[in-house]
Amino acid sequence: MVKHQPLQVYERQLCLSCLTGIYGCRWKRYQRSHDDTTKWERLWFLVLCSTFFLILFWLYFWWEVHNDYNEFNWFLYNRTGYWSDWSIPILVTTAAGFSYVAFLLILALCHTAVGQQMNLHWMHKFAVTVALVVTVISMISMEQLWGEEWDILLLSFQATGPFLHLGAVAAITLLAWLVAGQFARAEKSCFQAVLLLTYLTVLTALYLVPLSITSPCLMEKNNLGPKPAIIGHQGAPMLAPENTLMSFQKAVEQAASGLYADVKISHDGVPFLMHDNTLRRTTDVEKLFPERVGQDSSMFNWTDLQALNAGQWFLKDDPFWTALSLSEADWALSGNQSVCTLSEVLQLAKNSSKSILFNVRRPPPEHPHRESWINVTLHTVLQSGIQQQHVMWTPDIDRQLVRQAAPGFQQTSAVKKSVKILQEEGIVRLNLRYNQVSTQEIRDSREGNVSLTLFTVSEPWLYSVLWCSGVQSVTSDAPHILRKLPYPIWLMPPEEYKLLWITADVISFIVIIGVFVLQKWRLGSIRSYNPEQIMLSAAVRRSSRDVNIMKEKLIFSEMNNGLGSAEELSLCSENRYEGYTNEAITPRDQQHHARMQPSYTQKTPCILQDH
């Protein structure tokens, strides 16, 4: 009985199979290769990296713009006429796309680490292309429709810059293992020089990034100013329907220092609170007055406005995802809210000693109070009995008349002007969007005794940055959240931060040097190859120095095991021995080893065992 002794026993490589299978659908051994990645696949790797960083940027932007989700939804509502929370689907879709692309990138880097040839499957290529195109279109659309929102990136970097730098340094340090491996394996000195120069350039740039990082939170603790006052924007719209009496009561309960309201004049001259031009979004006007859905809310009489429900929409649309957290009593009360008048809010502010800031909308041209809207509003305020110093008056029209009738009002401008012009006009307060002023302008206004109120600030990180900048007050949709902040989220002395980033850079550099030395020691000499690698590379029929070295290693190992030459391997193959064929050992290899080894005249048959 004859038994063949196999030259090689294949080991199961489940991880490697999953790696190449998921990335390129190369689940079989013969489909894998250790040859160099083709130029086409290298190009796709660059596309994959570009898509990763672009989606990462878009995801970071969309996460940081969380402060303005409600504003974004309202903006789209005005363009489409349909209210929906568009922000969450965009965020979830972006996060899913980023996770997918990041997973592929990790697989690609693992291919590089284990020396496998990259071959991205066509389905992945299609999906990556779709993700790239959708992201580019989304960014272009954002620029055209809501371009001012990009300003939030600069503000967010003031809050996250130091931590993003540390994360980037950690990432580039981890990447040193792959870079050092490629550097040690590379055969061409030109490639080594380009690789090392590129890596060192990126590394040096990251090490020096802190020199350009500026943040108002990098300051001594004893220089921190008082906590900015919190003004309830439309009351507390996360806890109750906006611009309703319940919403302003909730703001008072949450210790807001002031109240902000949007004021309009009804057809019969009653100032009431409403943000939109129409009543469609925040009332049940479609049910009671279906023929007047698109009509300006100022064209309704107060008796008609009183009949509308201004709370059910809040429970139905849940604009801030907070309705389900309401108690049963608050849920029932929210659903029974009606349109609120300016007089009711003024009375609440008076009784609770709160200041009030309101934005009065001028009625449309056909309105009977088109020319007298300032007088109507002023008369309502004075009749309420609220202390004049608690009123922040914003309309620019007839401001001199208002000064004469109510000299105690805080004259407030909603238009950005220089401190000198504001002082000449007798303006003591500015009410601006948070992205309209810089840190230096905040300091200049404080030195010029002009108070700043910035809107709408609902995220703790943004509130912390403005606090460190010296802002006096903010309007917020979330007074119940901001009031719980006893201190900015982070505050660090400049010298302490300098020590931190220098230490991180030094540790990173030492680790990188160690990694390069280790990889050079591991991979600098001729590597040992197993027969499986030789077979896989030979099957592709591509010539490379690595393949030739592996073949040489195999022949040497087989000679030591008792097979005298490559010819013996061929004899075994001819006898249908399940080993390696002549494709793995070419005539060129036989001639090469014939010159290097002593000639063997005796031919040894295949290894047999008699029983």
From TrEMBL:
UniProt key word RNA-binding: no
Pfam families hit by this protein: GDPD
GP-PDE domain residues: 228-486
Membrane disposition: Multi-pass membrane protein
UniProt KW keywords: Cytoplasm, Glycoprotein, Hydrolase, Membrane, Transmembrane, Transmembrane helix
GO cellular component: cytoplasm; endomembrane system; plasma membrane
Compartments (UniProt record): Cytoplasm; Endomembrane system
Residue ranges of the TM segments: 43-63, 86-110, 122-142, 162-181, 193-213, 499-518
InterPro entries per record: GP_PDE_dom, PLC-like_Pdiesterase_TIM-brl
A biological-process GO annotation: lipid metabolic process
Recorded family membership: Belongs to the glycerophosphoryl diester phosphodiesterase family.
Protein name according to UniProt: Glycerophosphodiester phosphodiesterase domain-containing protein 5-like isoform X4
